[in-house]
Structure formats: structure tokens, C-alpha cells
Design brief:
Layout (H helix, E strand, L loop, with lengths): L1 H24 L2 H5 L4 E2 L1 E8 L8 E8 L3 E3 L5 E3 L1 E11 L7 E5 L7 E2 L3 E3 L2 E3 L1 E7 L2 E7 L2 E9 H4 L1 E9 L8 E7 L1 E5 L5
Parallel strand pairs: 1-15, 2-16, 7-8
Antiparallel strand pairs: 2-3, 3-6, 4-5, 6-8, 6-11, 7-13, 9-10, 11-12, 13-14, 14-15
């Protein structure tokens, strides 16, 4: 009987330690969800970089308040980074319209979030606290509505709609309004 009590004490202590570690690993800020607005945006321009696809490719790299890029393009601070790679466009420009997650590589589509060898691609959300990456959330479906590209991307208005964010099945909406900083990337191979 004494051995059984000791076994249960070890089990309860182990579960309590595991729960405390889980709470430490994922701060409550991560569980609150995505911010309603992103405040800094980069437009990565790849051009027509895939041999088998006749579309230009751009990526959006957006940052919430408190998180930014330094001069070496390293994230600094605490906040969220929304990254959407492989947005298929004509002439390497975002234009007004509705873009949807899809794997067809047609104009007005972008790749959904996927992980290849534990490396996120497509559409995903990072949570960074004190310059340290704490969370990666793949976003498996969504749309981007670009409603204005006034003055050559100096006043870009976009609304993002996502499903299955942090395990929720409801649609989540976030926004970006402001200039997109163009960043010419090397062609992909």
C-alpha cells in the first residue's frame, strides 16, 4: 500500500511539473491570439522565380506593434509576425482584389501554411518575446482583401481573414494599413 501511495505522489508531482513547464514555455500572451492590426509591413519581391509558373511572386512580411526588424533584418522586441510567402501576382505587384489560399499558383492565390522538415512555409504566424521565437502557428486557409494601393504602395489597405487559427474554427480578421517597404529578394532556385 505504501508503494502505491508513493507511485501516485510521483505521478501527481510529474503532471504538476509538466503543467508548470508548459505554462512557462507558452506565455499567456500567445494564447490571447493574433493582434487586430499589424503596424509595419515589407513586400518581398521575387519576380517570376519558378520555371514552371508564369506568375510573378511576392511575399508579405507584417509586424505587430512592439516587434520590428533591425538593419540586419533580424526581429527585435515582442509581438507577432505574419508571413505570407508565394503570393502569385502579375508583374510582381500587389493590386486591388481578393487573394485566396490555394496550391494552383494562379494569379490572386497564395500558398497555405505547411511544414517541410519542421520549417514553416506558406502562411504562418510567429510569436516573438524579448527577441526569442516562442511560437509558430501554421495558417491553413484564408483570404487577403487588398482594397487600396494608393500612391504606389505608400498607402496600402489590406484585411486578412483566416480559419483554424490556434485551433479555432471561427474566422479571425486582422488588418494592415500603411506603406509597404519593398525588399528585392534574390531569385529562388
Amino acid at each position: 500500500m505504501e508503494g502505491m501511495k508513493r507511485k501516485w505522489i510521483y505521478i501527481v508531482t510529474g503532471v504538476a511539473a509538466w503543467m508548470a513547464a508548459a505554462c512557462t514555455k507558452y506565455p499567456t500572451d500567445v494564447r490571447k491570439g493574433i493582434p487586430s492590426e499589424f503596424t509595419e509591413g515589407w513586400l518581398e519581391i521575387y519576380g517570376q522565380c519558378y520555371d514552371s509558373i508564369n506568375q510573378g511572386v511576392v511575399a508579405l512580411d507584417l509586424y505587430s506593434d512592439g516587434l520590428t526588424l533591425d538593419e540586419n533584418h533580424c526581429m527585435k522586441g515582442t509581438g507577432y509576425n505574419l508571413y505570407i510567402s508565394d503570393i502569385f501576382v502579375e508583374d510582381s505587384q500587389l493590386v486591388c482584389g481578393t487573394y485566396r489560399s490555394d496550391t494552383t499558383a494562379e494569379r490572386f492565390t497564395f500558398l497555405p501554411g505547411k511544414a517541410f522538415d519542421d520549417i514553416p512555409t506558406g502562411m504562418y504566424l510567429l510569436y516573438v518575446a524579448d527577441n526569442q521565437l516562442l511560437s509558430i502557428q501554421l495558417l491553413d486557409s484564408g483570404t487577403i482583401v487588398v482594397s487600396d494601393t494608393t500612391d504606389n504602395l505608400k498607402d496600402m489597405r489590406m484585411t486578412f481573414y483566416f480559419r483554424n487559427v490556434y485551433g479555432n474554427t471561427a474566422t479571425y480578421e486582422t488588418h494592415y494599413q500603411g506603406a509597404l517597404i519593398p525588399w528585392q529578394k534574390r531569385p529562388r532556385k
